[in-house]
Design goal:
By secondary structure, the chain is an alpha/beta fold. It has one domain (4-409, 426-519): Alkaline Phosphatase, subunit A (3-Layer(aba) Sandwich), CATH 3.40.720.10. It contains 13 helices and 18 strands. The strands form five sheets. Strands 3-7-1-9-12-2-13-14 form an eight-stranded mixed β-sheet, sandwiched between helices. Helix 1 packs across helix 9 and helix 6 packs parallel to helix 9 (256-286). It starts with a strand and ends with a helix. It is found in: Lysosome. One of its GO terms (molecular function) is iduronate-2-sulfatase activity. It is an enzyme of class 3 (hydrolase). Its EC number is 3.1.6.13.
Length: 522
């Protein structure tokens, strides 16, 4: 009788968390989870867009195999009838439950969040979600607007609540039901914040006085950034407060004070999320299931906060592709947890000082596509086989690999990315890398550059992140045959992340990096 799984997936959360070394954020509950978990500090999504990323990690296949780069197709019809991670748990005797935003809603999950394949009962969506983009933000003029920056008084909101509050309540209800039924479960809880609009209870602003908020370290468009790589952040331009600023398209910068406000509200939304996670985890203690439930915490992708003069996701940079990833496994990441022991007492971000450090930490580069085999292994299920080169007809296989062998829990030890390597060739070949990709409609920023529909995709940016570099090629792409032509390179990017961690200096055209490309040819 295996372990339960609580899978927490957050929308648009980059690792601005205390446990990831962020000095400004207040995230005591997520940090407390990290203090009992194996934490991966170099985890990357396969595409920095909600639907493609979620379908990728929930099926264990890359976007080129799901053939989803936008929001408008259902993989079972359009690519192949691939089993999903929750479906695999369901077929192995688990009750599988979905709360909030797990699959991206709409056609990409068959208008049903892939029910009944993936879930035992129809997924729960918070009723307040439908008000997310309404005019609920009070402006300086006293009127209501559909703003990007949107701290609110929850009691004044439609239904008197917010979606993530409802999702936490429903997830806690389901934990109580599962406790009574004594069946093993896979419960996925998808939180909306910090996805835009940055709409959260206004008291969280108090945690972040504006004078403590800095701009991004590199708030300018890098000189050598190829125009195809730039994402023009159309979605935030369409919010009332940003639109009023009349910023020139595509490269005009937002005013500094407004940049600070966005950053302040993103942080505030993260602390609001932290409270929800804290309530959910303390409920796991309350039903005495912390000793036999694996907890996974991650996000679908990151979000730029002004770095490279960019906002939102839609790019191949670390700020858009890197995600938090941690695994709490009772008896593995923690010594034996006795039944009924409190592992996750709720922590109030308004009265907390100091953070906690991860129990175990790996700097190895890992990918979200590896979640499916990793969770299967942790739960003691048979690990799905590796996919063959062409796997459109294969129902159950994975293009990721289980990362359980990277778990090494010894107090405070950070496992470096590169140990035991004398022979450089062997080293390079075995060094784990993460692949991400992003489609574009044209070489220069267009109104639809952030989210091109499949038929409009002309270029695909394939990006490879290793320990000490990010290498991206923007190549010709044919959306009818789904083929990329690497003979036809539109642009390239190479960032040496040891010396350029923020990825501001593209050295792709520097002749001194000839050695770098040579190692691909060997």
């Amino acid at each position: 009788d295996g372990m339960n799984v609580l899978f927490i997936i957050v929308d648009d959360l980059r690792p601005v968390l205390g446990c990831y070394g962020d000095k400004l954020v207040k995230s005591p509950n997520i940090d407390q989870l990290a203090s009992q978990s194996m934490v991966f500090s170099n985890a990357y999504a396969q595409q920095a867009l909600c639907a493609p990323s979620r379908v990728s990690f929930l099926t264990g296949r890359r976007p080129d195999t799901t053939r989803l780069y936008d929001f408008y197709s259902y993989w079972r019809v359009h690519a192949g009838n691939y089993s999903t991670m929750p479906q695999y748990f369901k077929e192995n005797g688990y009750v599988t439950l979905s709360v909030g935003k797990v699959f991206h809603p709409g056609v990409s999950s068959n208008y049903s969040d892939d029910y009944p394949y993936s879930w035992s009962i129809p997924p729960f969506h918070p009723s307040a979600e439908k008000h997310e983009n309404d005019k609920t933000c009070r402006g300086k003029d006293g009127k209501l607007h559909a703003n990007l920056v949107c701290p609110v008084n929850v009691t004044e909101m439609p239904e008197g609540t917010l979606p993530d509050i409802q999702s936490t309540e429903e997830a806690i209800h389901l934990l109580n039901v599962m406790k009574t039924s004594r069946q093993k479960f896979f419960l996925a809880v998808g939180y909306h914040k910090p996805h835009i609009p940055l709409r959260y209870p206004q008291e969280f602003l108090k945690l972040y006085p504006l004078e403590n908020i800095t701009l991004a370290p590199d708030p300018w468009v890098p000189k050598k950034l190829p125009s195809v790589a730039y994402n023009p952040w159309m979605d935030i331009r369409q919010r009332d407060d940003v639109e009023a600023l009349n910023v020139s398209f595509p490269y005009g910068a937002l005013p500094d004070d407004f940049q600070r406000q966005i950053r302040q509200s993103y942080y505030a939304a993260v602390s609001y999320l932290d409270v929800q996670v804290g309530l959910l985890l303390s409920a796991l203690d309350n039903v005495a299931l912390s000793n036999n439930t694996i907890v996974v915490f991650t996000a679908d992708h990151g979000w730029s906060l002004g770095e490279h003069g960019e906002w939102a996701k839609y790019s191949n940079f670390d700020v858009a592709t890197r995600v938090p990833l941690m695994f709490y496994v009772p008896g593995m990441t923690t010594s034996h947890v006795s039944q009924g022991a409190r592992v996750f007492p709720y922590l109030d971000p308004f009265s907390r000082i100091g953070g906690s450090v991860p129990k175990g930490q790996s700097k190895k580069v890992v990918e979200l596509v590896s979640l499916f085999p990793t969770l299967a292994e942790l739960a003691g299920l048979q690990v799905p086989p590796a996919c063959p080169k062409m796997s459109f007809g294969v129902v159950l296989c994975t293009e990721g690999t289980s990362i359980v062998h990277y778990f090494n829990i010894s107090e405070g030890k950070v496992e470096e990315g590169k140990e035991g390597c004398d022979d450089t060739d062997r080293c390079f070949n075995e060094e784990p890398v993460a692949f991400s990709q992003y489609p574009r409609p044209a070489d220069t920023p267009q109104w639809n550059s952030d989210k091109p529909k499949l038929k409009d995709i002309r270029i695909m940016g394939y990006s490879m992140r290793a320990m000490d570099y990010r290498y991206t090629l923007w190549v010709q792409f044919d959306p009818i045959n789904f083929t990329a032509n690497f003979e036809h390179v539109h642009a390239g990017e190479l960032y040496m992340t040891e010396s350029d961690p923020d990825q501001d200096y593209n050295v792709y055209n520097n002749t001194s990096y000839g050695w770098f490309f040579q190692k691909f040819l060997d």
